[in-house]
Amino acid sequence: MKKIFKIIVALAGVVILAAVTISMFITSGPNTSGKTVIQLFSTKTENAATYKELIKKFEKANPTIKVQLSSPSNAATVLKTDLAKNTLPDVMAVGGDTTFTSLQSSEGLRNLANESYAKKTLPAYRKMITSLYSQKGLYAVPYATNASGIIYNKDLFKKAGISTTPKTWNELIADAKLLKSKGIVPFESAYKDTWTTMAVWNQITSNSIPSSWITKRLKNQTTFAASHQQVMSKFLEITSYSQSDYMGTSYNQANIDFAKGKVAMIVNGNYEIPAFTPLNSKINSDMFMMPISNNPADNKVTSGVDVAFAIAKVSTHVSADNKLVAFLMENKNAEIYNKEQFSFSAIKGVKQTSPLVAGITDQVNKGNVINYPDHYYPAALDMTQVLTQAGLNAANHMALNTNIAKSLKHADSLFNAANVQEK
Amino acid sequence: MFRRNNMRQAKKKINFTYYVMVVPMALLFFAFHTIPFLRGVFYSFTDWKGFGSWHFVGLRNYGYMFTNSNIGSAYAFTFKFAIAATILVNVIALLIALGLTSKIKFQNTLKAIYFLPYMLGTLIVGFIFNFVFGNMLPSLGKFLHWGFLETNILGTSHAWIGILIVTVWQGLAFNTLIYMSGLQSVSPDLYEAASLDGVTPWQKFWKITFPLIAPFFTINLVLSVKGYLMVFDQIMAMTSGGPGNSTTSISVLIYNQGFQGSQFAIQSANAVMLFIIVAAISLFQLNVLNKREDRIEN
């Protein structure tokens, strides 16, 4: 009996040793002979090539530092599992959304308010970050901003005889009708990738519902059903002018179709441009502000912080992290980033000059912008579920009014279920 | 006295090699499966969001599960899916196994073809079928002017059927393999004797083959139900639970809401419930089917 026990103990020892050694290999990563290794984690996949290019330049200028870039496709989930393990990447490039809010509320981030690069940023975008939490301090420095709108094919507009972009909702729908009558698909919607529904919903909501609504909704003083009828109706109107299989079309497929000149418009944001330009470099496209109101002066561009840099408190080499962020935020590097990503800079003096976003640049520069409403929804509310269901109901020929009422009720019940835990 | 002596001898005879085989696996299982599971059970009684501080909340999370309509519909979908997939997989796998064990030409080639889907990862299969449903079938539908093929089935109310087809196609191989090994264990003498008695093929199957492979039927049924109640990969690859929540299985819901939605504790409670249900169903099946096996054998 003793012998068996001894053997079991010995075996347990071997197994534990093996497990520890293996885990050490996994966590320490490639050992790069005395260099400081810092991780740069990006929640976006579209800009990985640009980061790689900038990192190469950075490593050349700082030979003692090595940067490991990771930008997984399910980034929010990966970051949250990291958070659950209490290990965060050194530098995180996050969006100004609920993922960042969770990071911030876990108190895992450093306050960057006093860093020199933080002072280079535009106050309006700094405010978009600080408005996401109640504490004082700047826990992420805004870097690039996005702008939602409608991406359109100029050639197809010309072919249909449309010379100026629509300024009001009625004009937009009239143009869609005109395009349809000429045999051109007005909108390409890609609701198989559920997040694309939010690009439409957010633009309509931000221009129709006052930003104070969410505070009231969290206290159950109002509901979606009471206030969002117009929003849902406009959302469904866009789908009614979309291609027939809008529920089964993926984001990639939409980009392919747009690059081939098969569709006139896509309701989404500037971040989609680098996804279709490589497919057809000669495409004659531009963006315009999605006009929601029938009073042109009321319309605003829905814009938010697309990339902001945050540094983890647990990072063991903060000076190297700071160096990397400062480097990325140098004007000439920010210019490279914005040129390649068709984004707008949060840094003073860095301008976007691409003709592919020319129709919207003025509005952004004027500051005629409004933030994304879903950044303030509870994290557990999956609004895309409501919107894809509404789209599916429409595809199944449900009567419009029934669909609106049903979908908004659905949204309210999901909101209530999600709101319980937030307290 | 004699008996005790005998027992002692029996104890001494145990070879250490068996412990070497069994113990490391048990330890690994405990470290990487049992401990995380117990931690999950623990967190299901707290309000942990997946990060930050937490407090005990007793059974609140379990109560919350009954108020959230999403959780209810995920259970309904998962049961519907598991039942349909189990029936289809077992019926088709048994038919294929019968065909492959009879004397046919190209037997080995056909076996390889039927086993191929099982060797591909579920995610890969999901992505392949994403393309098939999204691009190939709609183009075919347009070419043939078949309206029902022109839209991507994954974007309709029938999305679950698309996932079911892929799941069945991929799951078949494993069950077929088990049925085949079952069929090969049936002695050919029995069939010879039966053919002398002049039984019909139908009688041959129901009176001889099926009773003799009953243990294999049991294990297939239990494994299928257990596996399909926890369906995850193919759904993530093909619809991630949409459109709406029409293809959100319990596992998909746990993953999405638990991590993305910061409802770690609530979804831990959900996972504990799923575990209890799967374990209960498996035990129930084993009990009922074993009794049936016993009846057949006597």
From TrEMBL, chain A:
Residues spanning the signal sequence: none
Protein name: Extracellular solute-binding protein
Domain of life assignment: Bacteria
Transmembrane recorded as keyword: yes
Keyword Transport: yes
Keywords, ordered alphabetically: Membrane, Transmembrane, Transmembrane helix, Transport
Family, similarity comment: Belongs to the bacterial solute-binding protein 1 family.
Ranges annotated as spanning the membrane: 7-26
From TrEMBL, chain B:
Residue ranges occupied by any ABC transmembrane type-1 domain in the UniProt entry: 75-285
Keywords annotated in UniProt: Cell membrane, Membrane, Transmembrane, Transmembrane helix, Transport
Location relative to the cell: Cell membrane
Pfam family, any one: BPD_transp_1
Transmembrane segments: 16-38, 74-100, 112-133, 153-174, 212-231, 271-289
Signal peptide segment: none
Superkingdom assignment: Bacteria
Keyword ATP-binding part of the UniProt annotation: no
Membrane topology: Multi-pass membrane protein
Main location per the UniProt record: membrane
Family label: Belongs to the binding-protein-dependent transport system permease family.
Protein name: Sugar ABC transporter permease
Native source organism of the sequence: Oenococcus sicerae
Species classification: Bacteria, Bacillati, Bacillota, Bacilli, Lactobacillales
